[in-house]
Amino acid sequence: MKYIEKLHYITHDIPHLSHIEQAQLACEAGAKWIQYRCLSKSDEELLQDINAIAEICDDWGTTLIVTDHVHLNGKADIQGFHIENMDADFIALRKLVGNDITLGGSVNTVENLIRLVRAGADYVGYGPFAETETKPNNYTLLGIEGYQHMVGALKAQAISIPVLAVGGIKIYDVEALMQAGIYGIAVSGALNFADDFIEAYQDFYRVVKESAVN
């Protein structure tokens, strides 16, 4: 089983910090897992960002995951990909990237989560937990009850995979989410728009670690 960190930081297109600056701050804060999420640039621009962020991650021993863009596999020092398309063919994707690359995906239902597990995903982002401006969508908000239901459903079928809560999560939500039995948390806006990015990351990290039940 591949190593999956319990706190994932996701970069985003924001006016006051570039993706590279976001990655630098996250690594300085102690981040061990960065998901580069940029859906607005050309391949050339993406690779410029990714190569710069990969160097930063290498200096800090941080895993670099890229959102979508699997066609860039092998063109930069990318450890894995996160697929946001909930209907993506993960069997084909796994064949495309090979077994050494970490492959995660976004899901909103237990049924789709189980489909990704059986298709070879290494971890799953399950959400949205609450409303989020980072990634607007019309999916059902899960709330704590949604995660409790999901954890129970996986246990009933003896299915084990790292599941991370994602979508509009604030620091005060983390303890209840972790106590629900999920593996970890993915955050973006709660750090990008914090008064102190590094302090906010470290607060999240501390609560995730202290509240983990698995």
UniProtKB/TrEMBL annotation:
GO terms for molecular function: magnesium ion binding; thiamine-phosphate diphosphorylase activity. PANTHER family: THIAMINE-PHOSPHATE PYROPHOSPHORYLASE, THIAMINE-PHOSPHATE SYNTHASE. Its EC number is 2.5.1.3. Mg(2+) binds at residues 68, 87. It holds the Pfam family TMP-TENI. This is Thiamine-phosphate synthase. Binds 1 Mg(2+) ion per subunit. Condenses 4-methyl-5-(beta-hydroxyethyl)thiazole monophosphate (THZ-P) and 2-methyl-4-amino-5-hydroxymethyl pyrimidine pyrophosphate (HMP-PP) to form thiamine monophosphate (TMP). Coiled coil: none annotated. SUPFAM superfamilies: Thiamin phosphate synthase. Belongs to the thiamine-phosphate synthase family. It catalyses: 2-[(2R,5Z)-2-carboxy-4-methylthiazol-5(2H)-ylidene]ethyl phosphate + 4-amino-2-methyl-5-(diphosphooxymethyl)pyrimidine + 2 H(+) = thiamine phosphate + CO2 + diphosphate; 2-(2-carboxy-4-methylthiazol-5-yl)ethyl phosphate + 4-amino-2-methyl-5-(diphosphooxymethyl)pyrimidine + 2 H(+) = thiamine phosphate + CO2 + diphosphate; 4-methyl-5-(2-phosphooxyethyl)-thiazole + 4-amino-2-methyl-5-(diphosphooxymethyl)pyrimidine + H(+) = thiamine phosphate + diphosphate. Its cofactor is Mg(2+). It comes from the Bacteria. Keywords: Magnesium, Metal-binding, Thiamine biosynthesis, Transferase. 4-amino-2-methyl-5-(diphosphooxymethyl)pyrimidine binds at residues 106, 135. Residues 10-190 form the Thiamine phosphate synthase/TenI domain. 2-[(2R,5Z)-2-carboxy-4-methylthiazol-5(2H)-ylidene]ethyl phosphate binds at residues 132-134, 168. One of its GO terms (biological process) is thiamine biosynthetic process. Transmembrane segments: none annotated. Pathway: Cofactor biosynthesis; thiamine diphosphate biosynthesis; thiamine phosphate from 4-amino-2-methyl-5-diphosphomethylpyrimidine and 4-methyl-5-(2-phosphoethyl)-thiazole: step 1/1. It is an enzyme of class 2 (transferase). One of its GO terms (cellular component) is cytoplasm. It comes from Pedobacter terrae.
